[in-house]
Structure formats: C-alpha cells, structure tokens
Design brief:
6 strands, two-stranded parallel ribbon, 243 residues, four-stranded antiparallel β-sheet
Length: 243
C-alpha cells in the first residue's frame, strides 16, 4: 500500500523581544529571516501580526506580490538600514522635478485642474514643513530655493527606517515627494494620492478613451499606495519628525 505523504505546514507566530524592544515574526518557533539574513523585528505587534498572516496565507509556492507588508519590512530592515543616505539622496532628487510644480501651458482646462488639485498640496507642505515650492510650465527641472532642500533633508533624516521605507515606496509610486509626504503625514488617503498623481493621464483619457495599459498601471499604483497606507496605520505611532 502506497504511503500518503503529509505536507508539513509551517507555523507562524509573533513574539515580543525585550532585548530589541520589537516584535519578532517566528516560523516554527525560530525568527523568520529577511533575504539579507536579518530577523523580521517590527516596532509594533499589529504590524508583526499582519506580516505573519501574510505568510500563513501562502500556499506551496510563495507569491511575493501578495505580501506587500513583508516586502516593505524587508526593505526597511535590509535596504534602508544599509543604504539610508543613498535613499535620502534619491528622494531629494525629486525636488527639482516635483510633479506638482510642473504645470501645463495649455489646454486651459488641464491647467485649471492642475491648479485646483495640485496647489493645495503645495500650500499644505509650505504650512506644515515651511517648504515653499516654485511652480513653472514645461518639463525642465526647476531650480528650487536651496533652503527647501535643506529643510527637506532635515525632515527625511528625522524619519526612522520604517517610515522612510514607506515614504520611499509611496514617492516612487506617486512620482512625487510631496504626495509621498502627504500620505506619510496622514493628510490624504491612498485613493486621493492616486487621484492627484494620475491627473494628466486621466485628462488624456477624456480625449483618447480608456487605455488598458494605463488602467493596469493605475491599479498597481493604488495597491502600492494602499500597502503603504496600511503599513503606516499598523506602525501605531506618530511620525517621528518635526518640521
């Protein structure tokens, strides 16, 4: 009689670690490790529990795309901690090409929509962080006031690795550092950030119709932003930076 092979199922749990003052994700009672060999040590129990649940939901094959929190955790623990200054430099590079500062000369309807949707974000960041952005038409980089870069750098330096991981992901997804900070600060939801980030594409569809490629990109962008939004909510504490 042929023996039936029983698949061994991994058990995922969360344990508080007093030494590191964090919460460890365990697999079969041993710390689950990131690709770089760091333990998944998270600053909040809620975040650790959600990451453990992502692993429990996996089948025989691990599908990273269904584990956004795990991916963000690996980014924070492996990449941000090791390349912190490089990550900050990459974010600062968005200043000269800030999406919200590049307005259309025409058509008038597009420019009016940009002013109505984008300018409030620039007004917000000026009031919240004392960063005044210049606005211009065209696509050429804008020479912003050096004091803006200095203040932005100070703001980014004050973020811990977990918040910086979320900001880096949100900024890359939205194509805007200002929008990334608005999500980080809880000023706007992921859906609202996408609405602002995709303004130009949305305007084009009014004339050329729906584009499946653009729609797919928008869906993926929304998933990424929602993952950052969930991540920030699960951290369970205020943003560790002051303007």
């Amino acid at each position: 009689m042929k023996k039936t092979r029983i698949k061994e199922t991994s058990i995922y749990a969360v344990k508080a670690d007093e030494k590191s003052q964090s919460f460890l994700v365990l697999r079969n009672d041993r710390p689950l490790m990131t690709p770089a060999g760091n333990p998944y040590a998270l600053p909040s129990q809620a975040l650790a529990e959600n990451i453990a649940q992502e692993w429990r939901a996996q089948g025989e094959k691990i599908i990273p795309a269904t584990m956004p929190l795990t991916q963000l955790a690996a980014t924070a623990l492996d990449r941000i901690s090791a390349q912190r200054q490089d990550i900050i430099a990459a974010l600062l590079a968005y200043i000269g090409s800030e999406l919200l500062c590049h307005r259309a000369a025409h058509p008038a309807a597009l420019r009016a929509e940009q002013d109505a949707i984008w300018q409030p974000y620039l007004n917000w960041i000026c009031g919240r962080y004392d960063m005044a952005y210049k606005v211009a038409t065209g696509i050429m980089p804008i020479q912003q006031d050096p004091i803006l870069t200095l203040r932005m750098k100070e703001t980014l330096q004050a973020l811990d690795d977990f918040y910086l991981a979320a900001l880096s992901s949100a900024t890359d997804s939205a194509g805007s550092l200002v929008l990334g900070l608005a999500l980080l600060d809880g000023q706007n939801t992921a859906q609202e950030i996408l609405f602002a980030a995709d303004l130009d594409s949305r305007h084009q569809t009014q004339f050329w119709g729906e584009d499946s490629v653009i729609q797919t990109r928008q869906n993926e962008t929304l998933k990424d932003l929602q993952a950052c939004e969930l991540w920030l909510g699960l951290l369970g504490r205020g943003i560790p930076c002051e303007p």
